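Feature request, filed as a ticket because there's no other form

It would be nice if the structure record came with a short human-readable summary line next to the tokens. Right now we just get the raw output. Example of a typical job, pasted below so the devs can see what we mean:
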Amino acid sequence: MSLRLGDIAPNFQAATTAGNIDFYEYLGTGWGVLFSHPADYTPVCTTELGKTALLKEEFAKRNVKVLAVSVDPLDKHLGWVNDINETQKTTVEFPIIADEGRVVANLYDMIHPNASETFTVRSLFIIGPDKKVKLIITYPASTGRNFHEVLRVIDSLQLTAQYSVATPADWKEGEDVIVVPAVSTEDAIKKFPKGVNVVKPYLRYTPQPNK
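Raw output as currently delivered:
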């Protein structure tokens, strides 16, 4: 059965390039990004893991821990990490799960038979401190993921979890946000002292409240 937004992310124990982990213990009270790769030594995924490593500080300042999963064995992962570090000019420090038994792949519905009978699809999950799934993106093998978009979504998720706002199309950190429909304009004016711009009764903007 596939996971949906709002579902509890399944816990698991696994061997990784950083040692044995319990997923929930690894995440602690913070946010998590779990992303899958069809196999080791694949070109697109090599660039993705490298990019994730290069963005280490960006994830850390958002209290986000990342980990990757592939169905290849641990020794193969370790060799691949050396290649990633060399070719992408970085150092991969986050765990890569060795999911030979496809335990994690099946828990997170990463096997799509019409795409591949054997390989995991390239899915990415953002998981909140409540261990609920906040976002799911699945990419085809030919298209590399945009990790700046992943960070943008995390910014939005963390902001909207704290305030009664939503973020408009193409929103970036620091830009105006939208007051959610559940808050009346009268209450919004009280709640957001920086001001409320009423474009339509249902479309009301306010400066980002935590800036």
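Something like this underneath would help us a lot:
The mean pLDDT is 92.
The chain is about 30% helix and 25% strand.
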